[in-house]
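Human: If only I could read C-alpha cells as easily as an amino acid sequence. Take your time, and here it is.
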Amino acid sequence: MGAGWLSISLSWQVILISIMAWWLLLRYWERTGKLDDWDATRVFGVILMMRTSAGNKSLEIISKPRKFWRAYGEVSLWVCWAAMAIVALLLVLTFISALLSPNLADPPSPSELVAIPGLNPMIPLGWGVIAFVVCLVIHEFGHGIQARAHGMRIRSFGLLMLGPLPLGAFAEPEYSEITEAPKRERQRMFAAGPATNIFAAIIIVLLMGGIAGHFVAASPGVHASGIVLGAGADEAGLQPMDVITAIDDKPVENLDDFKDVMSQYSAGDSVTLQVVRVEGQRENLLVNFSDKYDYYSELGWSADNLEAAGVVEGDPFLGVEGLAEGTAGIDRLAGPLSPRYQGGIGNLIIDVPIHALNILITPFQYQGVAIHPAQEKMLAADDGWFASLIGISGLLFLTNLFFWLIWVNILLGFTNLIPMIPFDGGHLFKDLVHSAMSGIRSIGKRSGLWKIHPLWVEHISNKASSLSSLGLLIVILSIMIMPYL
C-alpha cells in the first residue's frame, strides 16, 4: 500500500542489459550532437553529466540575506568538524574491530556494497531515485548558497546520471574564485553541503513525528516479531506478526491488557488464543503455558536478575518476543518523536542518537522497506481533517518518502565528511592542516624561535591531505574486503 512499484529492485541481468542499452543510446546522442545541444557530456563511458543554469535565479534569490547564510555557514562548519571527527573515529574503530574480531557471518553480496537504487537490494529503485535526486540537489544547493553568500559565482548545476539513476550532483563554481577565497569562506562552502543534508534529515524526522500522530491501529490486539522455538506459541502454530485479539475470550486490545490477562494464569495452564493471521483469516489456537522462570534460568539468568525483573517460579510463558501494538511500525520510524513515546526528557536525549542509528539500519533489517508489510496492514488513519483528506494511502506514501529522505540525507551527509579527497571532508581536513601550519609558522615568526617558509606550509598541507586520503582509502577497502577473506 505504501510502497508499490517504488519498492522494486532489479536483477543483475536486467541491470547489465540496461547499462549496455544506455551506453548505445549515449553514443548515438553523442554522434548526432544531441549532447552538445543539451550542454551535456558523456564521462567514464556510461555516465551522463547534465548541466543546467535553471537553478541560478533561485539560488540568487535564496542567498540574498548574506549575513544569515554566512552565520549558517559558520554553524555548518562546526557541525561538520565534529561529525568528521566522529566519522574518522568510527572508520578506524571498525577497521580495528574487523582485524581483532573477524566476522563469521556470510559476507554481503557485491551489489550490497554500492549505494545505487535498484542495484543494491536494500535500496528500492523508485524510492531510491526520488530520495537521491532530492538529497543531492539539497547538498549542492547548500554549497551554492554558501558560494554566493561569499561572492563566489556558480556557473551551473547538474546531475550525474546512469540512465534514470542519479549517481551524484554538482555545482560548478568559478574554481579560480574558490582557490583565491579566504580559507574560512572556502571551508564554509565545503561544509554547507553535508551540513545541509544533516539539518534536512533533522527537519524531516520532526515531520515524521507529526505524520505518526495521524496513525492509529486498524484493529485492537498485540503481535510478536519473534516466536520462541519449542514454546507454547510455537507448538500451537502462532506465527510472527499474527495479531492476538483475545485470550480465553478476554479481550486483548493493547500491551497492558495482555499483561493483565496473563497475570491471571500460571505455568501449565492451557488457554485459547483468538488471533488474526497475517493473511487476514481468524483462528483459535490452543496454547499450553510453560514456566517463564525455568526458561530464563536455562538462558543463564541468575536468581537475582530474575527477581529484579519480577519473574517468579510458576509465571506463565507464552513464548513470544518483541510483543507490540498495531502502531509499532510507525512508532519505530518516528522514535522518540512519536506521540505514543513514553520516555521523559532524559530518555529523549539518549534515544535521539540511537534512533538515528536505527534509521540507518532499518533497510537491512526489513529487506529494503521502511515498515514491515504486515505492520503496514495494521495501520489506519485517524479521524482528523488531514488524515481524512489524504487517507491511509497518502499517509503511508508520506511515511515512505520521509523515511528514504532521512536515510539518504544521513548517508550523504556523513559519507561526504570522510576526511579524504574528493569528499568535502577531505577539503576541510586539508584546510584545517593548512590553518594549523600557518598558526605554527606565525608563532615561530613572532617569537623568533623558528622559521617556516610559506611554501613548506603548502607542501605539508598537501602531503597530509594525500596521506590521509590514502590511509583512509586503505582502511575503507580493507573493511569491505576482509569479510571475503
About this structure: The domain at 222-325 is CATH 2.30.42.10 (Pdz3 Domain). The chain has a mean pLDDT of 85. Residues 36 and 388 are 49 Å apart (CA to CA).
